[in-house]
Amino acid sequence: MSELTAREFVADFFGSFTREVVAGGDAAEVVDRYYTPDVEQIADGVTLDRRRLIDHLRPIRKNLVACSYDVHEAMRTGDRLAARFTIHAEMRRGRTISTEVYLFGELAPDGRIRRTTQATRDVSV
Predict the structure, then answer these.
(1) For 7, 10, 55, 108, which has the most beta carbons within 10 A of its beta carbon?
(2) Cβ 107 vs Cβ 81: under 8 Å
(3) What is residue 1's predicted lDDT score, i.e. its pLDDT?
(4) Side-chain-facing half-sphere of 44: CA atoms under 13 Å
(5) Paired strand residues for 56
(6) Run of H or E including 40
(7) C-alpha distances out from residue 87 to 25, 51, 102, Å
């Protein structure tokens, strides 16, 4: 099987992660499948470690109905990843939120995310 392109990797990673989050089950197990134990995710200046990332999933599970990702650009060199994508999130009360994400990250050898720095902006219409 051929290796995924960087765009396919980003779309598959976040799409699969979101589907598992919404499906329920143990949030810690889901996070551990996609992120390393020492994960550090910085989004718009807010740092999430593993515990805070797990806690962040509760409101997502409660409010998210459906989600899709448009990956506009992505590059991967070794364990480094850079991507620009838009998340379209349909919320329980009928609102759709679109967020553009600029992500720079570091991957573990097994493909899980170790660190990311992200800048986001609301592009909802």
Answers:
(1) 10
(2) yes
(3) 39
(4) 6
(5) none
(6) strand 35-43
(7) 23, 23, 11
Of 67, 110, 113, 71, the closest CA to residue 91 belongs to 67
Cα(34)–Cα(27) distance, rounded to whole angstroms? 11
* Model confidence pTM above 0.85: yes
Name residue 103's amino acid.
L
- 16-64 per-position pLDDT tens digit: 999 999 998 899 999 999 999 999 999 999 999 999 999 999 999 999 9
Residue at 35: amino acid letter: Y
Contacts by 24-32 with C-beta closer than 8 Å and gap 24+? 24/61, 27/54, 27/57, 27/58, 27/61, 28/54, 30/57, 31/57
Residue 105 has pLDDT above 60, yes or no: yes
74-100 pLDDT, tens digit each = 999 999 999 999 999 999 999 999 999
Q: How many beta carbons lie within 10 A of that of residue 61, not counting itself? A: 13
46, burial (CB in 10 Å: exposed 0-12, middle 13-18, buried 19+) = exposed
